[in-house]
């Protein structure tokens, strides 16, 4: 269920989003990559594959081409 290869520098099975586990401690955010998400071929959903399942904090999906934000304020809270 990978997206089509529209960019020659990107692998065919590259995820659309990366999943990050974000926790806050003492006004600081810690980002750890925990998985990825791929768009379905019909464009009506995503498959989320987690390498680990955090029990606290939150999971943030960011475009795969971006790195994790530097600070807690970059991603906002839900």
Explain what you see.
By secondary structure, the chain is mainly beta. The protein has no helices and 4 strands. It has strands spanning 17-25, 28-39, 46-50, 58-63. Strands 3-2-1-4 form a 4-stranded antiparallel beta sheet, with no helix packed on it. The N and C termini lie far apart (28 Å).
Beta strands, count: 4
Shape: elongated
Give the C-alpha Rg: 14 Å
- Quick one: biggest sheet? 4 strands, antiparallel
List unreliable stretches of 5+ residues.
none
| Straight-line N-to-C gap | 28 Å
Q: Estimate the mean pLDDT confidence.
A: 82
What's the short version?
This protein has 78 residues and is an all-beta fold. Helices cover 0% and strands 41% of the residues.
List the topology elements.
Elements: E1 17-25, E2 28-39, E3 46-50, E4 58-63
Antiparallel strand pairs: 1-2, 1-4, 2-3
Name the features.
single chain, 78 residues, mainly beta, 4-stranded antiparallel β-sheet, 41% strand, elongated
